[in-house]
Structures are given as structure tokens and as C-alpha cells.
Specification:
The protein folds into 2 domains: about 1-155 and about 330-360, Rossmann fold (3-Layer(aba) Sandwich), CATH 3.40.50.2000; about 165-325, 3-Layer(aba) Sandwich (Rossmann fold). About 40% of the residues lie in helices and about 15% in strands. The protein has helices at about 10-25, 40-45, 60-80, 95-100, 115-120, 150-155, 200-210, 240-245, 255-260, 275-285, 295-310, 315, 320-325, 330-340, 345-350, and strands at about 1-5, 30-35, 50-55, 85-90, 105-110, 125-130, 140-145, 175-180, 215-220, 245-250, 265-270, 285-290. Helix 4 links the parallel strand 4 and strand 5. Helix 3 (about 60-80) packs across helix 4 (about 95-100) and helix 4 (about 95-100) packs parallel to helix 5. The chain is globular and about 60 Å long.
């Protein structure tokens, strides 16, 4: 089988990484195309996954419109050469258009609910796979899986934490540290968002530094006064740092969800919270959700100081973590089965309510 996968975000590399290796081992031919977004190319290089780069994303609205035409044409040229049987992505409207033109099935994941993007691929999609917490109804082509997409790469069967990586940041075994994650706010769905104010970032760093080491991971360029806190390590090592952190505080929903699967609590700020981080907070208590309002920023700082005051933070959340992983869904295993057996697999998902049980993490 020939499969074309388009990656638009660094998180997409993680989502499809294990799928890529399992499927190529089975003899399937997979072509990866990727847009330059933050550390996406670095993650692919580190994983040893070959890919076809096709440019950097644009930040302005006019630039994004121009980019859609530009990237559509580039992908069409690649696809005509590859001749895929199936096209696969996480919300790539570029690939949805190409698959439609070539009359090939387009299967996509969706969990953010960014309607300005969904509208561009929804009607070109054969299957839209969403978490069962996803609140938006996208029609008859939508199917659900339990949990979050981060299960595809952070279940214990796919990820083993290694404390040796901590040496890259000069950390000693058992040293308490906190990860701060700031995003760039330049995606189409980020228009109108400001995130944590600079003044509150300064306050946050000063307050937390009195209790633990502070390490900052940022999409945007850091101001000079924050450079001493920058976590300057290879991006592929990030999950090891999240695993051993006391907690994560930041503006990334993906990283907050990753922390929960790793057993690390997190504080997440965004005016438009994601359905999956809300579900994790409600079911397991790993994520503490706040808005970007100044009042909530104050509350989030108080929560951060509350967490850092706890001894053996991970132990406090162990029961919730064990509960979360007890019947966790093996998303990668599902992906392999679903794609290999498509379209018969789609028929089974629609007709057999017990299909999810075969992919439980038991």
C-alpha cells in the first residue's frame, strides 16, 4: 500500500512516528511531506524518517491564503509522482484538496476545533477521526476514539523515560525543576490571543525560582532577560524532561496533554481551551485550566506556588495516573489496523460498538 502523509506541526511527527515505522516494517510504502513549523524538521531528522520539505508557514492572513495555493500545488506535484492509495494527516487542508483532485481517500485526525481550518478540509474528507470528547459534530464521516492523540506515542509501550537526558540541561538526579512553555501565537487560530503577559512571566519566573529550577521552552524568541532560563536541548528529548519535571506551566494544550500521560501535572492557560484538556482535568485532575485573563493569570500563579510547595508531587498524582493508563487506548495500534483494512475497517467501526476494546492498553 502507498500512503502519503502530510505533516503541518511538530506534534504531527510524534502522532505518526510509530505508525510510520510499524507500517514500513510491514512493507508499506510511506511518503512524508512536511511544512517547516518550529522544530518539525529537527524531529523528523532525529527519528531518521525521510521526508519531502515544502516550505515555511506564513503568519499573515494574506500570506496564509497565498500559502494555501502554493502548498496545494507543491503537494499535487508530489502526489502525482507518488500515486498514493490513501492520504493521511492531522488537519492538512492542503492534502485534502490534493486527495480530492486525485480521487483518493483522505483520512484526517482533528482535535483542536479550529473551524477556520476545518472548513477548508471537511468536505474533502472521507474520514475525520476525533477524540470522543470532541464537541463539534462534523457529519457522517466523523468517527471517535477514546482519549487523546498523545496516546499514540507516550504510552509505556512506546516511550521509556531516561533520566540520562537531564544532564543535557545540567540537571542533577532528583533536582526539582519546572518547565515553562510559551507559544508563538502566530497560527491562524491564535489571532486575538495574547497569552501570559510579560509582566506576569517575570513574576512567575521570580516566584518559582525561589523553590526550584525554572526551564523555559518557547516557540517565540525569548527576551534577553529570560535567556538564562532557556531549555536549550534537542527537541526529541523534550518528553524526558516533561516526565521528570515537578510540573509544566504554559500555553500549549498538546504539552499539557502529554504531561498527563507521563504522570506530570500541568497548568494550562488559553481563552479557548481544548476539549481533551478539559476532559483530563475533569476525569483525572492532571491539568489545571485557566483563561488568559489577568484575573486567571493571578489564579494560575497561585496554583503554581501551591504545586511547588508539595513534597513528592508525582506521588500525589500516582493514583490518577494509574487510573488514566489502566484502559488507555492504543491509538497507534488502531491506526495500523484502520489504514491496513480500510474501507472494511470503517464499516466495522460504524457497525460494531465493541471495536475499541481490541485496542485497550492492557
Amino acid at each position: 500500500m502507498k500512503i502519503l502523509i502530510d505533516l503541518c506541526h511538530p506534534a504531527d511527527v510524534h502522532l505518526f512516528r510509530n505508525f510510520y515505522f510499524l507500517m514500513t516494517k510491514k512493507g508499506h510504502q510511506i511518503t512524508i511531506t512536511a511544512r517547516l513549523k518550529d522544530v518539525s524538521y529537527a524531529l523528523l531528522d532525529a527519528a531518521g524518517i525521510p521526508y519531502i520539505p515544502y516550505g515555511k508557514s506564513y503568519s499573515s492572513i494574506l500570506g496564509k491564503l497565498f500559502g494555501m495555493v502554493k502548498f496545494d500545488l507543491k503537494l499535487l506535484k508530489i502526489a502525482m509522482k507518488v500515486k498514493p492509495d490513501i492520504c493521511l494527516s492531522h488537519g492538512s487542508f492542503y492534502l485534502s484538496h490534493v486527495a480530492f483532485l486525485l480521487r483518493k481517500p483522505f483520512i484526517t485526525f482533528e482535535d483542536t476545533g479550529n473551524m477556520e481550518q476545518i472548513r477548508l478540509y471537511r468536505y474533502f474528507s472521507n474520514v475525520i477521526i476525533t477524540p470522543d470528547s470532541f464537541p463539534i459534530k462534523l457529519g457522517k464521516n466523523q468517527i471517535y476514539f477514546p482519549g487523546t492523540k498523545e496516546l499514540a506515542y507516550l504510552l509505556p509501550k512506546y516511550f521509556i523515560p531516561d533520566a540520562a537526558f537531564l544532564k543535557l540541561a545540567g540537571l542533577t538526579p532528583g533536582e526539582k525543576y519546572i518547565i515553562l512553555r510559551f507559544v508563538g501565537w502566530n497560527a491562524s487560530h491564535d489571532i486575538g490571543h495574547q497569552g501570559i503577559s510579560h509582566e506576569n512571566k517575570v513574576r512567575l519566573i521570580k516566584a518559582l525560582s525561589a523553590h526550584a529550577r525554572v526551564l523555559i521552552c518557547s516557540e517565540a524568541e525569548l527576551p534577553a532577560e529570560f535567556l538564562e532560563y532557556r531549555l536549550n536541548v534537542p527537541p526529541e528529548s523534550m518528553h524526558h524532561f516533561l516526565y521528570y519535571a515537578a510540573f509544566m506551566y504554559g500555553e500549549s494544550a498538546t504539552m499539557a496533554a502529554e504531561c498527563s500521560i507521563l504522570g506530570t501535572p500541568s497548568i494550562y492557560l488559553d481563552d479557548v481551551s481544548r476539549c481533551y484538556v478539559q476532559e483530563i482535568e475533569q476525569k483525572f485532575g492532571f491539568i489545571f485550566n485557566f483563561t488568559e485573563s489577568l484575573d486567571d493569570q493571578e489564579k494560575s500563579l497561585a496554583k503554581a506556588l501551591e504545586l511547588i510547595s508539595l513534597n513528592n508531587i508525582r506521588e500525589k498524582f500516582r493514583a490518577q495516573h494509574e487510573l488514566m493508563l489502566a484502559d488507555a487506548f492504543d491509538l497507534t495500534g488502531f491506526m495500523v489496523w484502520f489504514i491496513e483494512n480500510y474501507p472494511a475497517s470503517l464499516k466495522e467501526v460504524r457497525e460494531n460498538n465493541e471495536w475499541q476494546n481490541r485496542f485497550k492498553n492492557r
